[in-house]
Amino acid sequence: MNVILIVSDTFRYDHLGCYGNEWIRTPNLDSFAEKAIVFDRAYTASFPTVPHRHDLYTGRYTFVYSEWAPLPRNELVLAQILRQSGCVTQLIVDTPHILKDGYNYDRGFDGWLWIRGQEGDRYMTSPREVKLPCNPSKLRYGARTVTQYLRNVSLRQRESDYFVAQTMTAAIKWLELNYDQHEKFFLHVDTFDPHEPWDPPRWYVDMYDPEYEGEEVTYPVYGPCDYLSEEELNHCRALYAGEVTLVDRWIGMLLEKIEDLGLLEDTAIIF
Description:
This protein is an alpha/beta fold.
C-alpha cells in the first residue's frame, strides 16, 4: 500500500465544513471527508511548527523533552521506517523551518524538494525596498519577517505562483512520474499555508470581506489585539479564511490527480 501524508500548517479544524463551519468554502476537503474516516477527538500534542513535526515523525509525545530544535540524530523517524519496509520515500515541502539551518527533517527520504520563500526564509535579496501592507507596529517582529517575505514573493504574478499552489503542483508532477514506477511509495506533502503572512489572491479575500478598504494586517502581533479596530480584526479573519479556501482548492487538485491515476484503492491518504 502507498501512503500520502498531507500537512497544512496552522489550519484550524473549525474552519472546515466537515467540522461544522458554515461560512468558509472548503468543498474539496469536505468532499474528501465524506469518503474518509474523520477524527473528531484528535488533539495535537505540540502546537508550534517544528515540535509538531517532531511528534508526527517520531510518533511520540515529544513536548515533554523536545523544544523547537533540530531532529536529534538518534531519533528513528517515519520515513526511515517506511523506507526500510520497501517504500520509496519523497518529501515535498514549502515549510522552511524543518529544513533550514540543519534541522534534518528530510531524514529518511529518498528524495526531497524544498519550495523556497515562505515566511522569513532568507531567499530573495531584492528588491531592497518593499511597500509594507500596514503600519509596522501592527506586524509581528515589526517589519523584519514581512519585508523578507515581500522580497520572496516579488515576482509572483498568478495564483499558480503562490506557495501552496507550487507545492501541490510539484506533488502532482511527482505522482505523474512515479505512480507506476515503484512497488509502493510514501509521499509527504507539507505546506506552511494557511500560516501567516495571510495574503491570498484578492478574489479569495473578497469572498469574505469585499467592502474592506483599510490596511492589510497580514501578520498581526500575537497576543491581545486591542491595537486593531473591529474592521481590521474582521479583515484578519477574512484574510485567514481566504488562505483556507486557497489551500482547499490546491489540495483538491492533488486529490483529483490521485483519483485520476487510479491510486485510491491502494493508497492511504492522510490530511
